[in-house]
Amino acid sequence: MRKRTGPRTRIVDLAGAFVSPGFNDAHVHMDATGALLAGVNLLDVHSEDLRMPHLIPVVQAACDLLGSKPQQVLADAGYWSESNVWELRKADIDPYIPPRRMKHDEVVEPPRGRMPRRLICTVHNLLKLYRATA
């Protein structure tokens, strides 16, 4: 190891103690920390209905804390289910939830023409998501 020392290298005698290289890993997971700092305790939020993985209870917890409901909810594809979409719509909340995960290099062609009056949930949400990000 002495061959790898330079003029600014400091050698410390550890008197037989062991030392190993490491790093300082001081960081915060903002989603969890932010939720706790805002006062919304989501640790006990769960859903018995496996078709609605925690989204509706989380929205309800936020509504309870804030005393009002949001006009829109943005969630990732892991929360997509027709149950979640319909529950949010029943509460007069616009859901922005992609129905599937997209690959990073995937290109989505923009829709052409007028939107049909009646669309199934999946197509409707894709169009809303596209318009929100366009």
What would you say this structure looks like, in words?
There is one protein chain. With 134 residues, the chain is mainly alpha-helical. The protein has one domain (28-133). It contains 4 helices and 2 strands. It has helices at residues 30-37, 55-66, 82-90, 121-133; strands at residues 72-74, 94-96. The chain is elongated.
Helices and strands in order, then pairings?
Elements: H1 30-37, H2 55-66, E1 72-74, H3 82-90, E2 94-96, H4 121-133
Parallel strand pairs: 1-2
Measured as a percent range, the helix fraction is: 25-40%
Mean pLDDT: 75
Domain count: the total is: 1
Strand order of the largest sheet: 1-2
Largest sheet: 2 strands, parallel
| Unreliably modeled segments | none
Judged by helices, strands and strand pairing, the structural class is mainly alpha
User: What radius of gyration results from the CA coordinates?
Assistant: 25 Å
Tally of helical segments: 4
From the spread of the alpha carbons, the general shape counts as elongated
* Count of distinct strands: 2
Distance between the termini: 57 Å
SSE run: HHEHEH
What share of residues are in beta strands?
under 5%
In short:
By secondary structure, the chain is mainly alpha-helical. The chain is built from 4 helices and 2 strands, in the order ααβαβα. The termini are far apart.
Keywords:
134 residues; mainly alpha; two-stranded parallel sheet; 2 strands; elongated
